[in-house]
Structures are given as C-alpha cells and as structure tokens.
Amino acid sequence: MKDKRTYKNKKEHGEDMSHENEIKIEAGSIPTLIEMHKKEIWEWKQKESEWIKTENLLSGTKKIIDDLSAKLIDQIRIIAELEKEIEKLLAEKNK
After folding, report:
1. Tell me, what's the pLDDT at 93?
2. Is residue 3 part of a domain?
3. d(CA 39, CA 28)
4. What domain count does the chain have?
5. Is 90 within a domain?
6. Given CA atoms 70, 71, 73, 78 in this order, what sign does their dihedral have?
7. Residue 47 burial class via C-beta count within 10 angstroms: exposed 0-12, middle 13-18, buried 19 and up
8. Rounded distance, CA 80 to CA 86, Å?
9. Which residues contact residue 25 at a Cβ distance below 8 angstroms, ignoring those fewer than 6 apart?
10. pLDDT value of residue 4
11. pTM of the model
C-alpha cells in the first residue's frame, strides 16, 4: 500500500498532504448540510440569548447591591449622628 504523505514532485512540498480536512459532498446532501447548519446556528443563537439574559441579570443585581450598600452606609452615618445627639442630650440632662 502506498503512503499518501509522500511527495512526488518538488512543487507539492507546500501543499497539505494529510487530506484530513477534505470531505466529499454528494449532490443530494447539500440541503441536508444546510439544514444541519441552520440547526447549529439556531442552537448558538439560543446560547447567546441565554448569555445576554444572564449578563443583564448580573448587571441589574450589581446595581441593586450598589444601591443597597450606599443606603446602608447612609443609615450607619445617621445612626452614628443620632448616638452622638443622644449622648449630648444625656450629658445636658445630668448637669
């Protein structure tokens, strides 16, 4: 059996001799291939849709966390001010 990876002419040196990527397409199989590719495209579009949905959910959640964090910091500041006010009032009362 002849090895198909041997070069017969000098100019064949730059060509791919592996034939790994070659496929034979029969005349009737083109519509089948088109349908297969349409299904693959649909599946990838569905995945992309899920990724976009997840990304939007993530950005919305981040915004909520940022808003709640800002409100929490404001509440802590207000509590500290009220505690100082209470201490001041108690000190005045005890005089």
Report:
1. 87
2. no
3. 18
4. 1
5. yes
6. positive
7. exposed
8. 10
9. 33
10. 60
11. 0.52
pLDDT in tens, 4-49: 666 566 555 566 556 555 666 676 788 888 899 999 999 999 999 9
CA dihedral of 56, 61, 64, 70, whole degrees rounded to 10: -120
CA 23/CA 33 separation, integer angstroms: 12
| Tokens encoding 80 | 């500290």
- The verdict on residue 86 lying in a domain is yes
**Structural domain span for residue 87:** 32-94
Please name the residue that has the structure tokens 């997840």. 54
Which amino acid does the sequence have at 48?
E
Does 19 map to a domain? no
What is the distance between the alpha carbons of residues 47 and 53, in angstroms, rounded to a whole number?
A: 10
Query: 43: which 2 tokens?
Result: 């599946």
